[in-house]
Amino acid sequence: MIYKIRFQYKPPGQLVPYDTSQDQELVFKNGEFVPIPDIGDSVSYSFDNERKPFKVLSRHFSYLSEPGEGELCLINIVVTDISQEEMAARRKK
User: Fold this and answer.
1) Is the distance from CB of 23 to CB of 47 less than 8 angstroms?
2) pLDDT tens across 9-67, in order?
3) How, if at all, do strands 2-9 and 70-81 pair?
4) Which of 26, 29, 44, 61 has the greatest number of CB atoms lying within 10 Å of its CB?
5) How many Cβ atoms are within 10 Å of 43's Cβ, its own excluded?
6) 75 is in which domain, residue-wise?
7) Nearest alpha carbon to residue 55 among 38, 79, 85, 74
8) What is the pLDDT of residue 56?
């Protein structure tokens, strides 16, 4: 099975996330470790050519069978802003 993770940014107060996702596609193949953040976790990734921390709001898993690709799991993760104070409380530099 192939796993594709897509992060979508949702600004505070908006009803739906942006259509765009992270700058680099995240693809994992069968047998590889797939790090899937949970709701409430903080994640950092490159978005609009800037690496920023975000907080996970929701996750959605879609399981498909693609001709030529085999079994595919698309993981859509919606994130939002995380304050500097909350991020500082989550990790020590």
Assistant:
1) yes
2) 999 999 999 988 888 889 998 888 888 999 999 998 887 788 888 999 999 999 998 77
3) parallel
4) 26
5) 17
6) 2-90
7) 79
8) 96
Residue 72 to residues 1, 58, 61, 64: CA-CA distances in angstroms? 5, 20, 10, 5
E strand or H helix that includes residue 85? helix 84-90
How big is the CA angle at 39 (ends 33 and 42), to the nearest 5 degrees?
Answer: 75
Question: Which residues, at least 6 apart from 76, have a Cβ–Cβ distance to it below 8 Å?
Answer: 6, 8, 59, 60, 61, 62
Selected residue with higher pLDDT from 69 and 26: 26
User: d(Cα 76, Cα 68) in Å, to the nearest integer?
Assistant: 22
For residue 35 the two structure tokens come to 């790090």
Contact 42, 53 (CB under 8 A): yes
Report the amino acid identity of residue 83: S
Phi, psi values for residue 37, rounded to 5°:
-65, 150
Task: Tell me if 36 sits within 8 A of 59, measured CB to CB.
Answer: yes
